[in-house]
Design brief:
single chain, about 40 residues, mainly alpha, about 0% strand, elongated
Length: about 40
């Protein structure tokens, strides 16, 4: 999924921007963990 932050610049340093980044990374990690192959 792609999330557009209309007034976001290259920093995305506001609290809401950082929270969005953290949630996005957590979502990716969750997806990787659920697709992991046991024993590999």
């Amino acid at each position: 999924a792609v999330t557009l932050v209309k007034d976001g610049d290259h920093r995305l340093s506001r609290a809401a921007d950082l929270a969005l980044l953290v949630r996005s990374v957590e979502d990716v990690l969750d997806a990787v963990e659920t697709r992991a192959i046991p024993g590999v």
